[in-house]
């Protein structure tokens, strides 16, 4: 059974970059130990064991994350978790640099050793561009003396033939991949000759190989000298040799050691698996990893474990040998025991400040309540644990007063002497002290730097930034909600904090709840987190409510899904949290009030936009739906402000925005508390009514984007007395009708009509328009009797108040005739249309669209009345006129040809003529209209019916199948046109002998019509009767 030891017992840290290197290292262990409990703040996974009495910790870089940065992160986490580590080993594979001076072969081992100016490892890609070329900067520490002494002793043993390398390598005999035999031939090509092809250089020219003397044996040869480390793979022979020459001759290229040497004292050991050129492949990697691991074991075996125990730990070794003063700490919060996750953000801070050392100041930016303070707190304590040479201080920038108070606490901590009477500015004293060399290294956290005036001052007044110390070896981390503040403070050195991922959120909720059993239902838990949008503060608030009220997650969800007042109540409820500032908002809704106030103070236009947005839907907000602000630059600035606070997020590659759902709710609370909700709602309704497009097909994409927002406003019962609301209801109804959502259209058109009926005069144009549109929707919904009654009333009113030739009077008579025909009153329809046509013939020119439209509809009525010859003659006239005044592809010209004339020809027995005309129309429309255009689809639909009438059933089925497929993608399930094409396709299937298919499709059509059409709707009744008949046939 594996033994278990305390973390402090492990003294050697062994880091690998690849799984194959870790496997080799594990094979070298004399004994494997039991795993220890995982530290939640450490992303590494460790293998534990011992070699020659040394207790060894093995860690591998995360899969796919090679390079100096990743190695540094793994090493730092290792030394923070295993505080007893005395030194490290970086063991793995590398690319050799063959030269006349050093005969390096594949499978050899290279060990880092100081040579001239270099300490054993040089980061060759670290530096800066200068007028004279690339200048390498910085230096890397040499390996610890105890390891260099061990290398010397090991090499002496090697020379005396007392090496045990062969014995160690024999452990790999049971793993074929790690044996020398599996590696294959050792081929070195000339530096200037690039790889020609083949995984193993099969097509590379043998003439370009370098001829070398064969070695006397296959024993591993060890070389010591400089190793070049960088963040990119060295893959060209000429570049390899150039860089090596610039550095005075290196033995090996690799990608990890440069991130370790200064912060994790170690020895680098590399097995040569290729020659750092374009001919590299993976055949030698396993064997090279094995030789490196065996060599590392040899090094450890010459070091007495007792000597290691006498040396300093890694933490002690990297601390300054002469500290000017002991570190000091002022962190006003204790550690947060509920903190979880955020590994990527913490790693990003570590990379920027400690690994790459590319900056001294970094800003954490994110939405209020996203967890910035908690991430900064976690980072501060991790620095305290892993870097004891750093003092750590914390100041809030909520106000200049809170900042000054914190400076006073820091002054007391540092024992900064104050002048008599404390008249000196403590902020300035702290700045001066921390800027001086005697202060040593420090990390300063400036939290809640949200207000531009507080941070940067206004006019002659100083801000927090004016009192911040500057020192070469010290660091500052800011937190802010405001992107502009972040960029102003640290430029591009910004770490953006997003909402938690699913696992982090579940873990945080679990740590926050008293009753862990509440999380047994994964579906309910996930639903809660989705409702809270994975926002940490909202999760903490929910947990506090559930804990306090001893309720369940389901009950909390019920409250979130109830009335807006219930939601406001629970989202505004404050709760105690020891990791937050006293006397500041802890409720998620109220914490944003501060930001809303700042926006109102500095950018009134942005505040007005946010108030408008809280009245419409919170997602998919088109830029065009927002109130217009002039000039455009001012509008862009206002949107930029909202995006800077992370309240509004712009979708990638779209002029569309989303608002955090809880922000949307909190904004409504804020607007309501300011007493301006009624005014804001009215402004929103008025604006949206003005910009809402007409129901023309050309506007379909736009009004589809606007509809959810308009419907939300129309659903707001607080606006029921506002007249403009019913104009918006009318527009919504019109567009829903065009989109085939007839039932919804009827509901909104009724809303508009009934209000106008109660509040407007009988002859009011607005009231009559609502009646007219509602009648059309009733007609589409199969409520033909209601449509007739409404239109008869409209016609009667307009007959009294308008002259005979008035366009509105004629339009209502025209529409009434259409409804008469649908109601089976064909004679009435014909009489009324003949009257309309006669009047329009007197007052309108021959080519006027309204005159032609009436003649068009009259022809349809003639056909329905059995007067086919009259219908054909009239339609031929309409087509002739439209042919003269409209271009070939004009919709009106095409409509008269396919909607009526072709079907009239068909009714008159002239089926071939109908087919020819419709084929022409379809051909023209295929050139000028997009695939899903309603007119194009209607023409194809009618042509398919003509094909069937002409006996071309197969053609009818093919064409209708295409129409059905396109309408299925473009139209909602209950759209009349979609159902019509499916119904006709079913008839075509039946005519083609595919009765089973016909029955299945008709079953579907009937099911949809039963759901959306009234029981006595003609279309529903016809489909049901046809289905019953076909079912009998199929039986």
UniProtKB/TrEMBL annotation:
What protein am I looking at?
Kinesin light chain
